[in-house]
Amino acid sequence: MFVINNDRTQKPIKVWLPGEQDVEEGCLEQAYNLSNLPFIHKWVSLMPDTHKGMGMPIGGVIAAENTIIPNAVGVDIGCGMGFVGTNIKADEIRDIMTGNGTLLQGIISGILRNVPVGFNRHKKEQPCATLDKANEELSKYEPNPELLENLTAGYFQVGTLGGGQHFIPRERRHTTN
């Protein structure tokens, strides 16, 4: 992570990439524009999947004071990016051989095989406490048949990965300064 704070910014831009050369020019220009808006709270953030959007960088995150910007949410509402670390070091499992290659290759293959990507979804419902609770509390809300169908569909989409800029990293190379 690095921070851009120069004569083009009113608020800092925090970027979760190795260096400024890793941010496309159009995306960086949008981040500069955002950093100069009077309602930006503290800073602008650019996640590792960031790229130029329609005014707001995809993978850009802002907090606004007393302002709502629908386009800042964009079409990926509900899209999230998670980094899940473990105490397992890649070097410790890279050379362990199994019947089908290294243990690391097996783990990666299992993830790629079992996580539906793009418009794909699971063939069976997946457990989801959030959807269970929503279904239990339906009486609290105004009925909407279209939304009820989405609740049911959600059980097949839990734990899937969209298309486009969504990704599963193959291996994280950790470096320390």
Structure description:
- The chain has 177 residues and is α+β, with helices and mostly antiparallel strands.
- The chain has a domain at 2-73.
- The protein has six helices and six strands; from the N terminus they run ββαββααββααα.
- It has helices at residues 25-35, 70-73, 90-93, 103-114, 129-136, 145-157; strands spanning 2-4, 13-15, 40-51, 58-64, 97-98, 101-102.
- The strands form two sheets. A four-stranded mixed sheet has the order 1-2-3-4, with helices on one face. The chain has a two-stranded antiparallel sheet with strand order 5-6.
- The longest helix has 13 residues, at 145-157.
- The protein is flat and about 55 Å long.
- The chain starts with a strand and ends in a 20-residue tail after the last helix.
- 10% of the residues are buried.
Nearest-integer average pLDDT: 83
Helix content: 25-40%
Query: What structural class results from the helix and strand content?
Result: alpha+beta
Q: Count of helices?
A: 6
Major β-sheet profile: 4 strands, mixed
DSSP strand count? 6
Net shape: flat
Question: Radius of gyration in whole Å, from Cα?
Answer: 20 Å
Spatial separation of the terminal alpha carbons: 12 Å
Strand order of the largest sheet: 1-2-3-4
Along the chain, the helix and strand elements come as EEHEEHHEEHHH
Residue windows where pLDDT falls under 50 for at least 5 positions:
171-177
Strand content: 15-25%
